C-alpha cells in the first residue's frame, strides 16, 4: 500500500469496509471484524491507528505481522487467507489486513462455533448473525436463490392462478410452459411444484408460509416515530401491494395545481415517481426468509422511509447501490414484476431514484443499513412539506355533495341499510376487497356487520366476486353487477321497493 492510498484511508471514516485499531491488545475483536468482512463485502483492518485516525504504528512490525497471521489461521473457520501488508510512513509502521468477500462463507470465530460465531458487517460495527442470516449466507455461497426453491408439500391448487392471469391479462397466458419459464413452478417427481417465489406472489395462503410478507404503513407527526397519526397493514399480494401503499401515501399528502401552457397539472406534495420506485425495489429485494420483520413505510413531515428486511447481499455496499450496481435477491419476483410492467430495466431502480431526485430538485435520498435490513429515505422539498397534518379529505366524486347525499339516501331505503348503501357507492368507483372497504369507511378492521352486508349484497345480485371460484382467497375483491349499476343509475321515482 503506497503513501497516497494510506493518506486517503486515514481521511475516511470507519464503515462497512474499513476499521482502524490502535493495536492487537484485543485480538478477539480484530478476528470478529475480519470474519464480518469476509462474510459481507470485504474490507481493510488497519492496525496502528489511534481514535483520531492518526498513524501511530506498531512496536515490532514483523512480530505483529506474524502474530496476526497466526491468529487468523488459528481462530477463523473455514480458513481465511487475507492480504497482509506493512505500511511505513516516516518512522512509523502499521499493518493493513485486507479481506475479500469469501466464496467459503459463512466464516465463523472458531472459539464460538458455527452457530454463535458468524458475524456480518453492519455499518462500522460487527453484528452476530442469527439462523436466518446464516442460512442466507450459505445459500448465496452455493448459488442457491431463495425464491427459486421449491415447496414440494404444495401443488398448483395452492396458487391463485386465476388472479395471476387477470394481472397478466393478454401479456402472457399462464400455461404450464409459461409458469415454468417464469420459474413459478418446477417439475419434481413427475409433478409441478410451486416455488417459494410463486407462493410469495400468488399463494392462496401466502402468509401461512411467509408470515412476515406484508407491509406496515404509518403516518407520523413530526420527524420521528414518537407520535403516530395513522397506520395501516397491507396484506395484498405483492404486485397489488404497490397500489395499496400509494393509496395510503396519497391519503396523507396534499395536491396543488401548476399551470403551464394550455393545461393544468396536479402536483403532489410527495414525489410519487420516486416513492413508487422505492416501494417496488423494497418488494423485489426484501429477504422474505427473515422472521419478525415486515416491509415498513414511514411517512414523516420531511421524508418517507422505506425499510425492507434483509442486509445487503454479500459483496454489496451502499456506495455500490448508489452508483447503480445491482444484484437481484429474488429473481422470480423481479421477473414477474418486470413482465407486469412494474420494473423498466434490470437493476436500474436505485440509480433512477437518485437521478429523479436531482431532476426534481429534491435533497439526495439516503440509503442506510439498519439492524433489520436496509432503509431508503426519500426527502421532501422544503416548499412541499406539510406544516401540519390534516384529516384526509374524502376522495373526489363526480357528483355534488347534495347529489351524493340523495343517492345514498335512496340506496339506503332500497337496501334497508346505511352501511350497504355506502359499500355500493364505494364499489361504484372501483372494485375493492373487504379490508379496503373497511379502510375507506373509516373502520380499523372488517366488522361482522360489514361481512353481513357484503353477504346480503351478493345474495341480492347487487355485487359479485372477482374470483368466484375461490371465495375465501386473500386476493378476493368485489364489484357492482349490471343490476347494481342499474340500481345506482335509476332515478328516484323508478326505484323498486
Automatic annotation (TrEMBL):
Keywords: ATP-binding, Helicase, Hydrolase, Nucleotide-binding
UniProt-recorded Gene Ontology molecular function terms: DNA helicase activity; hydrolase activity
EC number: 3.6.4.12
Keyword Hydrolase listed: yes
Schlafen AlbA-2 domain ranges (all copies): 14-129
InterPro entries: Fic-like_C (IPR049514), RecG_C_sf (IPR038475), Schlafen_AlbA_2_dom (IPR007421), Schlafen_AlbA_2_dom_sf (IPR038461)
Top-level taxon of origin: Bacteria
Residue intervals of the Filamentation induced by cAMP protein Fic-like C-terminal domain: 424-481
Spans through the membrane: none
Name assigned to this protein: ATP-dependent DNA helicase RecG
Organism whose genome encodes this protein: Castellaniella defragrans (Alcaligenes defragrans)
Lineage: Bacteria, Pseudomonadati, Pseudomonadota, Betaproteobacteria, Burkholderiales
